[in-house]
Amino acid sequence: MQRRPEPELMDTAEQAIAYARADFRDSNNLFIRLLEQHWPDSGAAKRNGCTAIDLGCGPADIVLRFLRAWPQAHCTAVDGSAAMLAEAQHLLDATPELQPRAQLVQATLPDPSLGQQCFDLILSNSLLHHLHQPEGLWHSVRQLGRPGAFVLIMDLLRPPEPSWVEALVKTYAAGEPEVLCNDFRHSLRAAFEPAEVQAQLRAAELDGALDVHVVSDRHLAVWGQLPA
Ligand SMILES: C[S@@+](CC[C@H](N)C(=O)[O-])C[C@H]1O[C@@H](n2cnc3c(N)ncnc32)[C@H](O)[C@@H]1O
Predict the structure, then answer these.
(1) CA 54 to ligand 1: nearest atom
(2) Which of the residues 58, 134, 158, 209 could staple to 191 if both were Cys, CB 3.0 to 4.6 A apart?
(3) Quick one: pLDDT band at residue 53, thresholds 50, 70, 90?
(4) pLDDT of 175-217, one tens digit each?
């Protein structure tokens, strides 16, 4: 099935509110589990802290899960959509104990003003498929990660046929509002296949450092450490 890109930013209030209210517990827990399992410095970061950045943070559910699981960590949460960041701010307002360790930043990636090689950990979930120029994500990873930084990028993977798209929408978005079913449908069609992500890593000269894995019936994940 051919890739059909969707708009980059989720910048209508309707879209952001529907997304923030949706239940992404399964995939967001999977993301945190992958981080626990594969990040070699996970234990040290729990004791001593670290600096993380979440690219395309949306309503920041993963940021909050991360800050709860790594109680000394700080996280910069970046999104280009003011509507999404407003949802993230609501969530942060409801968790004042985490606020001092989270910073919301509105920026459209790639953005050189976010810093140079200053983060220990680069996180991103469900951003890659939004990008019209996916090399922008890999450029940002290189720009923002310090030497040896750990990278975890998770996203949907594009099914081979339209009928698979409909089966996945039926399985995982049944009962959700129409706007969300359509988002999920469009996202699956806009997602990349694992081989395409592998080619992106080769083009960015990150293929020796980061690997692509299929981690569920609808997700792929890329993880590894930047060269020291
Ligand atoms: C599907 S949401 C994922 C949100 C969140 N990471 C999560 O897992 O729930 C994708 C987010 O990426 C943001 N986004 C898309 N393209 C972007 C870009 N070039 N720069 C910054 N944010 C972007 C969108 O506005 C949206 O909030």
Answers:
(1) 6
(2) 158
(3) very high
(4) 888 888 999 999 999 999 999 999 999 999 999 999 999 999 9
Give the distance (Å) from ligand 1 centre to CA of residue 202.
23
Contacts of 21 (CB under 8 A, 6+ apart): none
Tokens of 110: 């790639």
Q: Ligand 1 mean position to 166 CA, how many Å? A: 23
pTM above 0.90, yes or no: yes
* Whether 129 contacts 192, CB under 8 Å: yes
Q: What is the pLDDT of residue 175?
A: 86
The string of pLDDT tens digits covering residues 93-131 is 999 999 999 999 999 999 999 999 999 999 999 999 999
On whether the CB atoms of residues 60 and 77 are closer than 8 A, the answer is yes
Which residues contact ligand 1 via a Cβ below 6 A? Answer: 8-10, 24, 56-58, 61-62, 79-81, 84, 108-109, 125-127, 130-131
Q: How does DSSP assign 108-150, residue by residue?
A: PSS-GGG-SS-EEEEEEES-GGG-SSTHHHHHHHHHHEEEEEE
Could you tell me which residues are beta bridge partners of residue 84? none
**Residue 81: what are its φ and ψ, rounded to 5°?**
-100, 120
Confidence band (pLDDT; 50, 70, 90) for 5? very high
- In whole angstroms, what is the distance from residue 176 CA to residue 63 CA? 23
The residues spanned by each domain of the chain are 13-225
Ligand 1 atom with the shortest distance to the CA of 61: 9
Residue nearest to atom 9 of ligand 1 (CA): 58
Looking at domain 13-225, its CATH architecture is: 3-Layer(aba) Sandwich (3.40)
